[in-house]
Amino acid sequence: MGENKKVIFSGIQPSGELTIGNYFGAIKNWVKLQDEYDCYYCIVDLHAITVKQEPKDLRRRTLQLIATYIASGIDPEKNTIFIQSHVPAHVQAQWILNCTSYVGELSRMTQFKDKSKKYEDTGIGAGLLNYPVLMAADILIYQADLVPVGKDQTQHIELTRDLAQRFNSTYSETFKIPEGYIPTGGAKIMSLQEPIKKMSKSSDNPNSFILIMDPPEVIKRKVARAVTDNIGVVKYTDDQPGVKNLMNIMSCCTGMSTADIEKKYEGQGYAKFKEDVAEALIQELEPIQNKVNELLKDKSYLQDICKKGAQKASYVANKTVSKMMRKVGFILPEK
Ligand code: AMP
Ligand code: TRP
After folding, report:
1. Going by CA atoms, what residue is nearest to atom 14 of ligand 2?
2. 182 Cα to the center of ligand 2, angstroms
3. Mean pLDDT for the stretch of residues 204-211
4. Is the pTM here over 0.85, yes or no?
């Protein structure tokens, strides 16, 4: 972990079973970055409770997420893998940043608007509004240079930059200004049923998503049922969003370009193409599934990784939080 390497921070919420959107949009790219950067890969459980969670499911998914990071190829020796709630600095930094954020800018976030619609009748939790401030804290306390996320998170990264700049100009230079890092191919995997919407683990229709842990026969069935069109040509175009999405998925699995995929399926219709997409996914996911199941048998190994990760993360994060406290005028506790 070279001191001079640039810093990467990213995280996923343990709020549902992970989809291939999370895998191609996030995890698979993280693996590629681990040699070049000093990476902090977090399980953001504090974010997960901004909507209601069943405690036992949250616990199970948190462990499964750690296992998935490792099974996908994120090396716990090279990277800092940890659970957000194990590092209190995230919450301390969030409170301070909260006090420099405006309700107006937070309520303009697309994700807040989308998520809060669901809760209009039952009451919109304050955590949903403050969610991106916690995300900004996550990133800024590690002085991260780059934040690899899917396209849906770009607005939150913009806000993080705004909050960092505002704090720096109010209290003097404190934070590095981070940049988003959006992958090209897997940037947005779409729903298999409504391919103009993003594939989401919180969708009510299980046919709309494929989970990293879906067994082969389920993958085959879901791909076979994926909505396409009646044009009948495998072509990479916005006019055929269903086909385009399946091509993206195939490209993410095999590394083939979408132009090559077009060529390969010229004049063939959708049946064979869909079979091959399913097969490519199974090839990609099966080894990961086996490894996840293996790792979940040894919970103390996973907990040990998180413990070491949290120690390293706390050390770095506490330095930034002390700086923040000093700058806003708090008296630091005696060491
Ligand atoms: P979330 O599931 O919202 O916690 O997202 C975790 C990570 O996966 C973030 O970097 C998202 O941008 C990414 N992600 C989630 N869904 C998709 C999708 N359908 N396509 C690409 N990336 C996604
Ligand atoms: N908001 C992100 C998502 O839903 C998860 C997240 C929380 C995150 N904190 C982060 C991502 C910090 C990157 C960096 O996908």
Report:
1. 10
2. 13
3. 96
4. yes
Contact (Cβ atoms closer than 8 angstroms) between residue 27 and residue 150? no
How far, in Å, is the centroid of ligand 1 from the Cα of 238?
21
CATH for 206-293 (1.20.1250.20, 3.90.76.10, 3.40.50.920, 1.10.240.10): 1.10.240.10
d(CA 204, CA 110): 20
Contact 186 CB / ligand 1 (< 6 Å): yes
Instruction: Calculate how far, in angstroms, residue 24's C-alpha sits from the geometric centre of ligand 1.
Output: 9
pLDDT in tens, 13-69: 999 899 999 999 889 989 999 999 999 999 999 999 999 999 999 999 999 999 999
pLDDT tens digits for range 69-98: 999 999 999 999 999 999 999 999 999 999
Return the best residue to mutate from 37, 85, 138, 176 for the ligand 2 pocket (most ligand atoms within 8 A of CB): 138
Does the domain at 7-186+299-328 match CATH 3.40.50.1110? Answer given as no
Give, for ligand 1, the residue of 12, 22, 49 to mutate: max count of ligand atoms closer than 8 Å to Cβ.
Answer: 22
Helix, strand and coil percent figures for the chain, each rounded to 5: 55, 10, 35
Residue for token digits 């895998």? Answer: 23
Query: How many CB atoms are located within 10 Å of the residue 263 CB?
Result: 11
